[in-house]
Amino acid sequence: MSTKGSPAWQIIQAVSGTYCAVFATIAYFFPRTSQAASGQSMPIAQTVISPWLIGGLIALGLSVSVPAVLSVLKGEGGKAKRSGVATPEAQRVVFARVLGDCGYLLRSYRKLQFDFPAETRYPLNPDSWPNFNPPATWTYVQVRLCCLSSAFDLFIEMTRAMLDKVAFTDYIELFNVIDNIPKKIITIADLLRDLEQLDALLKKQIDALGERK
After folding, report:
1. Does the pTM exceed 0.90?
2. Per the domain annotation, does 81 fall within a domain?
């Protein structure tokens, strides 16, 4: 099925865009304040609304990027089906796309671990941030952990689908960990180690494809 112009993706993009616009407008024109620990007032728009807004932005970005990548893969798919293997160009597109997302997660989690080691010990554990209902005041670290956890889940699903599309079967420790260990007990040290392993593997594959030219 073609992803270009797909009504489903167009609906997702429209809903995501409207979602972000509405929350951004509310945050800008109707800021509410709460009392911070220091006694100073701080906008609730930066605490309660931020997780929803950032989640909407992630959904909007994926609704644009995923169809684009799948469209490229479909273009290369005819060649791959005829030859029985994925073409180097299709592999290069997939590896580069996954590497970019992996790099983003690595940089984000590294910074959080460096700045807030105690609060980020279990970065995928839902207990590391407040419930959405009833609304609660969120700290910066809680907002980042919640949003990164959602981005990580989407990254795993998309990466598996895209690597499968180009028949890449090398062992990836990150997938093994996610499949066999409860997310609540995965430490940030383990997560960074496995993301670094995937990052190094993808760079190696891209370098190897470059040498084939």
Report:
1. no
2. yes
Count of structural domains, the chain:
1
Determine phi and psi for 160, rounding to 5 degrees: -60, -45
Cβ contact 123:148 at 8 Å:
yes
What tokens appear for 138 in the block? 């969120």
Task: Give tens-digit pLDDT for 48-65.
Answer: 445 555 665 565 566 555
Q: How far is CA 209 from CA 133, 164, 165, in A?
A: 49, 18, 17
CA angle in degrees (0–180, nearest 5) for 3-210-173: 70
* Alpha-carbon distance values, 22 to 53, 56, 87, 151, 188 (Å): 9, 10, 43, 21, 34
For residues 169 and 55, the answer to whether their CB atoms sit within 8 Å is no
For residue 103, give its domain range: 7-211
Residue at 178 is within a domain: yes
